[in-house]
Amino acid sequence: MKPDNFPKNIQPHLIPEPKGELYYQCLGCSGQFSMEKLLYVCPRCGQVLLIENKNFDDLKNLSGSTWQQIFDYRRMLNIPALKGIYRFHEFIGPTLPLDDILYLGEGHTPMVAANAPLQEKAGVAFYYKNDGQNPSASFKDRGMASALSYINHLINKDLVSDVIAVCASTGDTSAAAALYAAYLQPHIKSAVLLPHKKVTPQQLSQPLGSGARVFEIPGVFDDCMKIVEKLSEEYPVALLNSKNAWRILGQESYSYEIAQDFDYDMKNKVVVVPIGNAGNISAVMNGFMKFHAVGIIDELPKIIGVQSKHADPVYRYYLEPEADKRVFTPVTVQPSVAQAAMIGNPVSMPRVMQLVEKYNAAAGEKRVFVTQVTEQEIMDWGLEANRNGHIACTQGGECLAGLARAVEQGIVHQDETAIVDATAHAMKFSGFQDLYYTRSIPEEYGITSKPELINAPRLVLPRDPEKVPAQGAPLSDDEFKTFAGDIAQRIASELNL
What we know:
Blueprint: H1 11-14, E1 22-26, E2 32-33, E3 49-53, H2 64-74, H3 89-92, E4 111-113, H4 116-122, E5 125-130, H5 140-156, E6 163-168, H6 172-183, E7 188-195, H7 201-209, E8 213-217, H8 221-234, E9 238-239, H9 245-251, H10 253-261, E10 269-274, H11 279-294, E11 302-308, H12 313-317, H13 349-363, E12 368-373, H14 375-387, H15 394-408, E13 417-422, H16 430-437, H17 477-494
Parallel strand pairs: 5-13, 6-7, 6-9, 7-8, 10-11, 10-13, 11-12
Antiparallel strand pairs: 1-2, 1-3, 4-5
């Protein structure tokens, strides 16, 4: 639909022009720094950063209802830069010209209502938001679209050139980084660091397929992250982990989409996300707070972060009810089927600490919670979800397990509706399903395969096993007629037809 066909009062706002003044805000010393160069930590104190807009209050010159109309009408535009996460341009990257925005089909992933049996089992009405339907099959594309659009902007302004982008990953980050960097070649080359033999084959194939340099490192993700940080401190590389504050901006789009899909009514809503490196939950909180501050939404939803018992430093931190007595202590992780969440020292923990306090204060009560689940619950709930028509990854299983735990603990109530994050496509983690079905998940995961959840193919043979079709050796018409009738009869018997 063309802009001229929209209401006159909306037309001036449909296609945004670059405006605003962004800056890096240190969460430690409160220092403010220019956006003219890539920063990942504060140059004074080394703390992580958020990106703020000095002109954010100007967004309040339009009413919340007007912003709702702008975003709703933008849905009908055929401008690539506004079809993805930058539909919410003014809240994500207001200084970027549309020509610099990189769009590969990310964002606006579907919310699918759970069927009645699954809702009854979980104890509350809920939707899955299927972020596995992003281009690289995970939510990481949101942050990469933002981070790489900004780097593309710097390239187009001749502020950087011959960029080497690096990241540490448990799989999904590397796939997204390599994909978006590949689109911008030859200006950008990518290198990814992965923990050796702790990434699924499907995830490993993605950065390799996108042409990235892939380095496997002994240890776990936290070890890879330390090496990437060392590279970013001593060499001219672009860091694409969630230390990159542009990543957080892009991931805020998850909040904006949920608000829009509920017609901006966030009353009695609960958003459930895995914590992992804590960038996503930080972005979700920040996004909802921005919409709330401008009046686009009237209420802040509850947010529940979920951690496996095998990697739960944030859960342990919030076990202490008194804020001034809390001490964050990294943990040594154990193996987890929710591999993307297997992080013992989240980079964005300082963001979480600050944003949780702001979020609860803006809501006027405690609205952010953290739950802990077992590996058994993660696997079982993920399989239950997929058996009920979803495509939930193991992190999606972790979130559904966390929702069920929150219902059990009285955090979530019957009059509320939850939105559960399936961060990646189920196919990325299908190996764990195979191990479950064959009862061969290693003992250190602490998972026992339940017979009622196991599924396996059954080979059906005719009475005469010599008379079967084969590639290059078809049966005669009479032989195949006998074969087909025999097999059909056996299957009908199995199905009680």
